[in-house]
Amino acid sequence: MLPTVRKIPIGAVRKILSSFWDENLSHVKSHIYDPSRYYHCNLRSVYRFSESHSGSIPKSDRTNVAIFWDLDNKPPNTVPLFIAASKLKTTAFSFGSVRLMVAYGKSQQLNCVEKKGSIKTSEVFSCRVCNRKFSTNEKLVNHFRQIHESEHQKRLNQIESARGTRRVKLVGRYSMNMEKYRNAARYILTPVVGYKLGDELKRAGFWVQTSSHEPQKANIALKNHMVETMDRRQADCIVLVSDDMDFLEVLKEAKRRCVKTVVVGDVSDGTLKRAADTGFSWKEVLLGKAKKEAVSVLRRWKDRDILKRLEWIYDPKVDSKWYEFDEDTNVENGIDAREDDARVWWKLDKDTYAAST
């Protein structure tokens, strides 16, 4: 006869197992894998590893760069202004994080730059009389004056010379053409001050500041801005785009404050480039050579800073306490000599005096 099996409720089994766990395995809980605790620790280690092995520069080692562009002296003449500004900004990013980009110039000089056709915008300038298209505003104005203005003058002369019914017919015939000319002349012949120049620089990320026609006012404002930036310690490296000798003292002041300086200009061996830490030409900036050379320049600056920190400087107060010993001299005697050096020379120890007598 088979023994009867007593069925135990599942709830009772759970209570037994839970009590057994609490009584006998409580000491194991401290050694159980804690995913949340390990996860956070692992995050810290991964973060340290990424900081030490990633290509990004740590925040403490980042160099703040400021660009100061003297538009009165060094606007590029061969390339569009937006491309030149973008290339300049890319070169400056090779030296660190660009925090400030400023361009100073006179409005008259900026308008002269536009007449050279160096600024090529996406906008097409079309004549409102014949719908002919031009790449620059200067070509459009010359076309309008040479063709449409002379034609308009001929119509006026014909109307003035006619009499009676013929005059009335000429006015009716030329009325639409004359109205079209007046509307186009109001738009084309009106001088456009600073046309698209500020927009091109602002599109590249620069803050443009124009000054009046007073001489050297833009240079003075630019120098004051550079000194103010150094006073506030907003930049560790200054990129100056100019060949003007007026900025020589500012570069010397930056060197006294241990601020790195980079000069961009067309003069190959100018005074500013000799006073600065390094210099590039516009050709090197536009072709990308300056960006490649920035790596070696940064390495050279870093080596120079390390050598300055390791440089030995003689200090009589510190170095006078050390003695030179021969090879046979014991080092312990040297330590005693350094300790004796702190005493007054006429005070002798009792042991030393007794040994000598």
Brief summary:
The protein is 54% helix and 11% strand.
Topology:
Elements: H1 10-24, H2 35-53, E1 64-70, H3 81-93, E2 97-106, H4 107-115, E3 125-126, E4 133-134, H5 137-161, H6 165-188, H7 197-203, E5 207-211, H8 217-231, E6 237-241, H9 248-256, E7 260-264, H10 271-275, E8 278-280, H11 282-287, H12 289-310, H13 316-319, H14 331-341, H15 350-356
Parallel strand pairs: 1-2, 1-6, 2-5, 6-7, 7-8
Antiparallel strand pairs: 3-4
Tell me about this structure.
This protein is of the alpha/beta class and 357 residues long. The chain has helices spanning 10-24, 35-53, 81-93, 107-115, 137-161, 165-188, 197-203, 217-231, 248-256, 271-275, 282-287, 289-310, 316-319, 331-341, 350-356, and strands at residues 64-70, 97-106, 125-126, 133-134, 207-211, 237-241, 260-264, 278-280. A six-stranded parallel beta sheet has the order 5-2-1-6-7-8, sandwiched between helices. Strands 3-4 form a two-stranded antiparallel sheet. Helix 5 (137-161) packs antiparallel against helix 6. The chain is flat. This is C2H2-type domain-containing protein. Keywords: Metal-binding, Zinc, Zinc-finger. One of its GO terms (molecular function) is RNA nuclease activity.
